[in-house]
Amino acid sequence: MNRNSPHPLVERILCLHLPQWPMQRLCHEQPELRQQPIVLYGKSGRQARCVWACNELAREQGIQLGMPLMEAKRQFSGYVQAIDPEGDVAALEQLAVQCQRFTPYCGLRPANPHRPFLDTLLLDIGKTHKFFGGEAGLLEQVADYCQSLGYEVRGVIADHWAAAWALAVYGDLTALPDSLVRGGPGPSAQAALAAITGAAQQAAIGQLPIAALRVDADTCQKFADLGIERIEQVWQLPADSLPARFGSELNWRLAEMAGESKEKIQVCAAETTFHSWRNLEYPTTDVEVLQHHVRDLLAELLPRISALQSGVMSLECQWFVADRPPLHFSLRLVQPIQDSDYLQSLLQLQWERVQLPAEVKAVHVLIPLIATDKPQQQWLFADSADTRLRHRATLLDRLAARLGADHVLQKRWVPQALPERGFVPRVQVRRQTSAKPRGRQTTTQPHGLLERPTRLYHPPRPLANPAAQKFQLPGTTAWVPAVLSLPGNSQRVQQAVGPERIESQWWEGRWERRDYFRVQTETGERFWIFQEIGTGRWWLQGDFA
Q: Beta 38-42 vs 79-82: how paired, if at all?
């Protein structure tokens, strides 16, 4: 399937708008930032660096979009980062690939050529919405899926892509009279999804601002100078007179809004995406028969992937039943896989728990992500490092298939000075953005040559009566408690090394400063303790195994 391959013109298009996409992507990749004030900055032409995006916590500090960065820094205390346009596009493309579970035709473009960023997806659902219980059922499942990923979306199904895009980005979805809306007034209004057609669609488009026509800022300003603010006012003007006053682009945009455009959705990431559908001649509730169909579809797809010297990294399988949401099974793999039997065995862990609510009438297998599968070195003995890594990968794959990929976690180190904030949980089987990662990647090495305990206490445990007796470090003025009053017993210190000064980032609000010491007691046990600068209190942070 070619990225720009044509497909039959279908009458129903779903546009998903993700407000402040750079901010949403950052919080999705670094969940620990969701409770912090955030500002993303960038440059616009020759202008100085200014605020491109900010969250509600930053707005509470007086930050506004377009504010010069130097001015914002004077009153802002929080997380500041430059925008990453390439990373934003790559993540949006990956989300488009994931949304191919709803339709094979999903992409980022067409979009507004005059906007400096991409924040919408277009899904051609004309031939697939019937598999999801109609448009209302599809909207509900799209909303649930985006919510499970932690994304805030607005979406509209309309008769063509220009109307869907304009209504999703600029429309008031809660005011649509004849729509199927999921969501409601208040905070969820920004996450509403709607389906609209006919006269209601035409009336809703007429109330949109001129910018919804995807024209440049100069054209919008010319209309504003004439007191023309809505599209319905433009429709009342003589079409022949528009090009002379507003340029040739305006009539083209009006033709798009009327559904006369021939521009097609550019399917996203088609070069590395493989999928196959099968409509069953005889609908069935026999799981073994459905497994046979999945095996046949994999037999069609895997040779094409193997020819690219690649393997499967993620797999989506859907069983469609009449008038009900489809049954969905997904795999996120640790290493590239070309073995159909192995993939089937992982899916079997999910199939054995399924109860079919009705007869299955269609089967869909989607492989949205592949990766290069390098030949493994063969060893004479079976206890090689490669064998152990394969066994570990197999265990993780089976756990992810049984429990769900989002429930198999590992610790990810983050650049935080305070030990208890130095790591966050992340998904072990990651949803990678592409087979070939874009942009510069950095790896954080935890603590370098500094010795750290094997077990950390979170929160740290207070030490009782630490100043009763002091253990002086030889040749220094520093001291530690001579007796560590631990839960259940007390131990006398024999040796101590330190201090090591650790401070938190000043922009986090509370500035914490600590002096850390490694101490060894008379029983041979080693502990990591610290004293708070300012309060003088002592705490137990961890112990060495």
A: parallel
Q: Which has the closest alpha carbon to 426: 410, 403, 407?
A: 410
- Which two tokens mark 88? 């934003």
Strands of the sheet with 79-82, listed across from one edge: 50-54, 38-42, 79-82
Q: Are 114 and 216 in contact (CB under 8 A)?
A: yes
Query: Is the Cβ–Cβ distance between 208 and 231 less than 8 Å?
Result: yes
Go through 94-129 and write b for each residue having 16 or more CB atoms within 10 A of its CB, e for each that does not: bbbbbbbbbbbbbbbbbbbeeeebbbbbbbbbbebb
What span, in angstroms and rounded, lies between the C-alpha atoms of 480 and 444? 31
pLDDT greater than 80 at residue 307: yes
- Please tell me the distance from the alpha carbon of residue 184 to that of residue 207, in angstroms, as a whole number: 20
Dump pLDDT digits (tens) for 381-429.
Answer: 555 556 666 677 777 777 777 777 666 766 666 666 677 666 666 555 4
Q: What is the mean pLDDT of the chain?
A: 81
Token representation of residue 19: 């407000």
Return the sign of the alpha-carbon dihedral for residues 320, 326, 331, 332.
positive
Identify each DSSP E strand in 432-525 by its residue range. 455-462, 470-472, 479-481, 483-486, 489-503, 513-521
pTM reported for the whole predicted model: 0.63
pLDDT, one tens digit per residue, over 38-81 is 999 988 666 678 888 898 989 998 998 888 888 888 888 888 88
Give the tokens for residue 128. Answer: 């697939």
Rounded-to-integer distance, Cα 466 and Cα 470, Å: 8
**Rounded CA Rg of the chain:** 29
Per-residue pLDDT at 368 exceeds 70: yes
Going from the N-terminus, what domains does the chain have, and what CATH number goes with each?
Answer: 13-20+86-257 (no CATH), 273-403 (3.30.1490.100), 455-544 (no CATH)
74 phi/psi in degrees, rounded to 5: -70, -25
pLDDT-based confidence at 2, cuts 50/70/90?
very low
Between 443 and 335, the higher pLDDT residue:
335
The reported pLDDT for the residue numbered 209 is 94
- Order of strands across the sheet with 154-158? 106-107, 120-124, 13-17, 154-158, 193-195
Would you state the torsion angle of the CA atoms of residues 394, 400, 402, 408, taken in this order, to the nearest 10 degrees?
Answer: 120
Q: H or E stretch including 334? A: strand 327-337
Assign residue 45 a region (left: φ > 0; alpha: ψ between -120 and 50; beta: otherwise): left
Is the separation of the CB atoms in 439 and 87 below 8 Å? yes
Report yes or no: 494 and 481 within 8 Å, Cβ to Cβ: no
